[in-house]
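Consider one such protein record:
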Amino acid sequence: MISLSGDSDVVVRELFRPLLLQCIHWFTSMARDGGGEDGGEAARLLDAVVEGLCDEGDAGARRRSAELLAEYLRLEFFQRFS
């Protein structure tokens, strides 16, 4: 999904960017509320984001992964300190 959110095709990119952003918001709130079966869904999402940051062959995925990581950290800090 991360590579699709950074795709050069505008239609594909505009479909997957909001979906990933919503996933970040949802998993951040789930982790805070203790939701999920094992609580590891947010960790798996972050693993995928970090993997995208290390993708040498796809600059769009790296850029989008950096944006997603920044959004995740912003939400985490906001939720913890508000």
User: Anything to note?
Assistant: The CA atoms of residues 14 and 55 lie 21 Å apart. The chain has one domain: 2-80.
